[in-house]
Design goal:
Elements: E1 13-16, E2 19-22, H1 39-56, H2 60-72, E3 83-85, E4 88-93, E5 102-107, E6 122-126, H3 127-131, E7 138-144, E8 150-156, E9 163-169, E10 175-188, E11 194-200, E12 206-213, E13 221-225, E14 232-237, E15 243-249, E16 254-260, E17 269-270, E18 280-285, E19 288-293, E20 301-306, E21 314-317, E22 323-330, E23 334-341, E24 344-351, E25 356-358, E26 367-370, E27 380-386, E28 393-398, E29 403-409, E30 421-429, E31 435-443, E32 453-457, H4 475-478, E33 482-487, H5 497-501, H6 509-524, E34 533-538, H7 540-551, E35 556-562, H8 568-572, H9 580-587, H10 594-603, E36 617-622, H11 631-643, E37 650-655, H12 666-684
Parallel strand pairs: 32-33, 32-34, 34-35, 35-36, 36-37
Antiparallel strand pairs: 1-2, 3-4, 4-5, 5-6, 7-8, 8-9, 9-10, 10-11, 11-12, 12-13, 14-15, 15-16, 16-17, 18-19, 19-20, 20-21, 22-23, 23-24, 24-25, 26-27, 27-28, 28-29, 30-31, 31-33
Helix pairs in contact: 2-12
Length: 691
């Protein structure tokens, strides 16, 4: 191809609150969605993919080189650390060359040692076998029955996140199809004869929890159904395994019901009725309910209640401006709290006698999370840890001995010397004076005189923090002289829950101006000059990419936007889309609120494309994506092609057999990363690794 495809501009206007909106590429939405069969739409997406292929062809050698580098840093026959659950140790492994995991178990061994070749291992599920002949395969999870005889598993085979639920007889390997409209992981009743599962409706909203009694006919019983279209239903189990936990929530309000796993037919117990703006989640230990809630402090407090009076909460840990309480697990002998203190992760234990202990870790800046701990007592608490320079590390924390035991450190087969890399935390001054953290990692020979190059990543939505964690793939950028930075902008909860509140709804613009301030802080600190900072983000982070590409195009060397949410106004105006009603508390409801309409219209990337020079841009989409529909990036790119006045590359790559997460399979995902990195390296002119 010698020129990019040009989408037809078809007049299409709407009017809201007296404001006219032009949407000339609305035709790219197939009216039959989620099925996409319109020949003109498919032809246009195919032409865009061909234009991407035409760009990639001269770079094929470098893409192969990068792919080989990335693959060389992945342990081919990698395996997880076994997890004890009753009479069995469970883990996963990759067979050499395998794209997907094999899930195994063995009779429990003292100390749960790492797998050995002579282990008497039983295969529970082979993802390679299930994925054979499919363009896409994603396992949502596996749940083994209490007696160990069956496994419930859910899988998506097209990226639409509409999962099939099966129950496997582990003695025979025979599967029984339970549901074709499931999502998440099923939860077993105490007797192992029935299991609860979450159902999605035609609009992909999880709205109902059902119960399958194995071996019995008839329709699955309904345990709970949510009538409000703006609330999603979730299903979990208490740490002590005695209770099904049915939650229903939007982005600001939640509600929980409990049903005994020993009596699934019992009526659900409501913990406390929903109140707008109040979020809570619970765990159970014996007759005590443990509650994490933001009812009197934005950073959440920890409370307890008696099971027979679940709505009467007594504070155990008060809310704090400095300490953000992110989660709690109620083990038999202690509570394990996930916290963030001054923006840095931590784990605190609270014992039955009231004593407290914070687990000490070896670095000043890191990310840590409580891992899989299926047994109710957890004398060894499984943790996952890493930093910008420390590979992912699996710890068992010996609670009685107050000691961290290293169980596994991520292997980088091609070699990794952490002494060659440096990491630091900077602060950028935002437009309103707020200090915004920036995490940076770079090689020890990186210049700090403004002659360097930087890649900056951002997200900034839904209260999701971007942790300063390790990436082996990232070394391909660092070793070519590009520093990598993470902007911890408002909209995430990096610095506490108020950090999230200050980046949503009418304060959404803080996310965008924070990001630009972080880029300018990196420039001011000597990492790069204007025009030598490339940026990337995905989904809601793609909104961020679209906004700053519009507002500050000359600042960026290149922009990568993965499955970007860029038609914010159009999507929030369409209540028929599955995610729109639940998203209104996050973005605003422009249908009923004129102020929300004006606020979104002022930044919505698709609506604010102008005739100006844009940097090189790579945009991705998934045809089956239920979260950010394929037409959003397609429409955005079409409008950019029409408006922009530069000759820089503008590429759209649509995965025709995938959804929000891109291609499945570890090697296919790495090849997409290689393509992205080559796009960035070409923009920076930094294709050769440093010695």
């Amino acid at each position: 191809m010698t020129s990019p495809p040009t989408a037809a501009s078809v007049p299409h206007t709407t009017s809201h609150h007296g404001v006219r909106r032009d949407d000339p590429y609305a035709w790219l939405r197939d009216p039959g969605y989620p099925k996409v069969g319109d020949p003109a739409i498919l032809a246009h997406l195919a032409a865009e993919n061909a234009w991407f292929d035409a760009w990639a062809a001269p770079h094929a050698g470098l893409i192969d080189t990068l792919f080989a580098e990335l693959k060389g840093r992945v342990k081919d026959d990698d395996a997880g650390v076994p997890v004890r659950d009753g009479a069995w140790d469970y883990w996963w492994r990759f067979e050499p060359g395998g794209q997907y995991r094999v899930w195994l178990r063995r009779p429990a061994r003292e100390g749960t040692p790492l797998p050995a070749p002579d282990d008497d291992a039983q295969v529970i599920l082979s993802e390679p076998a299930e994925a054979a002949g499919k363009d896409y395969f994603r396992l949502a999870g596996i749940s083994v029955s209490p007696d160990g005889s069956r496994a419930a598993w859910t899988a998506d085979t097209d990226g639409s996140e509409r999962f099939k639920l099966f129950v496997r007889d582990l003695a025979t390997g025979t599967d029984t199809l339970v549901a074709t409209t499931a999502i998440g992981v099923a939860v077993w009743a105490a007797d192992g004869a029935s299991l609860a599962w979450t159902e999605v409706n035609d609009q992909w909203r999880p709205f109902r929890v059902r119960l399958r009694r194995l071996g019995q006919g008839g329709e699955d019983a309904v345990l709970y159904e949510e009538a409000d279209a703006s609330f999603f239903v979730g299903l979990d189990r208490s740490t002590d395994r005695a209770w099904f936990q049915i939650s229903t929530a939007d982005h600001v309000t939640s509600e929980v019901r409990l049903i005994p796993t020993a009596d699934p037919a019992a009526p659900p117990r409501l913990v406390r009725a929903r109140a707008t703006g109040v979020q809570y989640d619970v765990d159970v230990r014996g007759e005590t309910l443990v509650v994490r809630t933001n009812d009197d402090h934005a950073n959440f407090r920890l409370a307890t209640a008696a099971l027979d009076a679940p709505g009467e909460w007594t504070t155990l840990v008060a809310g704090s401006d400095r300490v953000y309480l992110r989660g709690v697990m109620a083990f038999a002998g202690y509570l394990a709290l996930s916290e963030r203190v001054d923006g840095l992760d931590g784990i605190r234990l609270i014992f039955a006698d009231g004593a407290e202990r914070r687990i000490a870790f070896p670095e000043a800046s890191y990310t840590v999370a409580i891992g899989q701990n299926p047994e109710p007592d957890a004398p060894l608490l499984r943790l996952g840890y890493s930093s910008m320079v420390t590979p992912a590390t699996t710890y068992d924390y010996d609670v009685a001995a107050d000691r961290l035991i290293v169980r596994k450190v991520q292997d980088v087969p091609s070699g990794y010397d952490p002494s060659r890399y440096r990491t630091e935390r900077l602060f950028a001054t935002a437009a309103d004076g707020t200090q915004v953290p920036v995490s940076v990692v770079y090689r020890d020979d990186f210049p700090r005189d403004g002659s360097g190059k930087v890649h900056l990543y951002g997200y900034g939505a839904y209260g999701l923090a971007i942790p300063p964690s390790f990436s082996a793939s990232r070394l391909s950028l660092l070793d070519r002289g590009i520093a990598y930075a993470i902007a911890h902008v408002r909209g995430g909860d990096d610095m506490g829950y108020r950090w999230y509140l200050d980046g949503k709804l009418e304060r959404r613009t803080n996310t965008f101006t924070d990001f630009v301030a972080c880029a300018r802080a990196l420039i001011g600190a000597g990492f790069a000059a204007p025009g030598h900072v490339s940026i990337s983000g995905g989904s809601a982070g793609g909104t961020l990419m679209g906004v700053v590409a519009n507002t500050d195009p000359a600042l960026w060397a290149a922009v990568v936007a993965h499955v970007p949410f860029v038609d914010v106004l159009g999507t929030m105006l369409d209540a028929t889309l599955p995610l729109t009603p639940i998203e209104w508390p996050e973005w605003g409801n422009p249908i009923g609120d004129a102020a929300a309409y004006r606020a979104i219209a002022a930044y919505s990337p698709y609506d604010n494309v102008t005739a100006q020079a844009y940097p090189p841009m790579l945009v991705t989409a998934g045809l089956n994506d239920p979260r950010v529909t394929y037409w959003e990036p397609a429409k955005w790119v079409a409008r950019l092609r029409h408006a922009k006045i530069d000759a820089n590359p503008l590429l759209l790559k649509t995965n025709m057999e995938a959804g929000h997460g891109g291609k499945s399979g570890r090697w296919e995902a790495l090849r997409e990363t290689a393509e992205e990195y080559v796009f960035l390296l070409a923009a920076h002119g930094a294709t050769e690794p440093h010695p």
